[in-house]
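Listing S7. Sequence submitted for prediction.
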Amino acid sequence: MGFNTFFKLIILALLLGALGLFLSMQDQGTSHFEAEYLAAEVGVLGAELSEIELRKNDELIVNAKNHNGNWLITNLNGYPADRAKLSAFIGQIKSAKKVEAKTSDPQKHKYLGLASVADDTESAEGENGTVNDFQPTQVNLVKSDTRQNNPMFSIILGNKAKGGNGQYARIQDDNQTWLIDRQITTPTHAEDWIVKALFTFEHEQIKQITSIQSESNSSVIKPNELTVSKQNEADSNFVMNDMPEGRVLQYEGILNALARSIAELSIESVFPKLNKQNDERNAQATAVNLDSLEPATQINIELYSGREVLLLLYKGIVNESDGIDNERYFVAVEDSDEESKLANWYYEINKFTYDQLNKSSEDFLAPVNQSETGDTAVEAAG
């Protein structure tokens, strides 16, 4: 091997070593960078967090406030929030990590869906129509100690990254934008953050159900009464009290469906009942005029614990903002449990849920001809 060749090998080895060291340093820098959280301040808020607010296009989506340990949705007249959903949302914000720095030019924020919520909406169209028609979501987090200099911490959430990997975001008063490692799930409506399940008891805990339907669109109430019960809590199936002579159930256990529909009742939205000392209430509730409606069905529920619940079903025609009349469905609750606050509200439900609750005995009985066939078969077998 000649001297020149040996010298060249030494130079090549040094270059490769330098390159390896450079790449190693780059990897270490990247690892350190990826460990940075978008909003490290959120992680230290803890019990100091007293309010969570989301806005889109400067319009309020949801505002949740902590009142003596109870989180309430203020733009739903103080209805209790689902703490698990609030916790999951804050967990997403706390865990979001920076992946890549993007533009720090405010004029280019709109291309990432990160223009300030209060900015002029002309940015929605952008240059040559290239801007995604996306309105950013502003997340405001408020500390309980408002005496501090900065009681509010705000994050702007923008477009989701192409390919579904991450989302663009920035801190409100910082022009630097970032691609973060996840897509933050945000509510579309305030109702998305409430507890949708109305009751906490299980259908096995129900002892008896009495449902009384009123005649629709009639000034004279013609009751259609249905009573189902279980003698013992361990019994598998409800039975129909006062079974009509010569009739049978469609199948064994069918009456359990009514108990399940009650115990698993899920609501869509809430409206405060009229306060006799203060007539102010939700505008939607006024439009529906629930206080003037008569219940279509009354359902009395008795639990083995002795608790009694009255469920009132309503339906009414509502003139929507688009001028179209729509039929909507609601329930109200009266409860013997003194700790329960269910009686303070009207609850909107969907048509399917309403139909599952609004049952008569005929909904569970086999047709007359089927019942007669069954009786004949029994006699023949005998």
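Caption to Listing S7: primary sequence and predicted structure tokens for the chain studied. Residues 40-193 form one domain. The chain has two domains: 40-193, 203-369.
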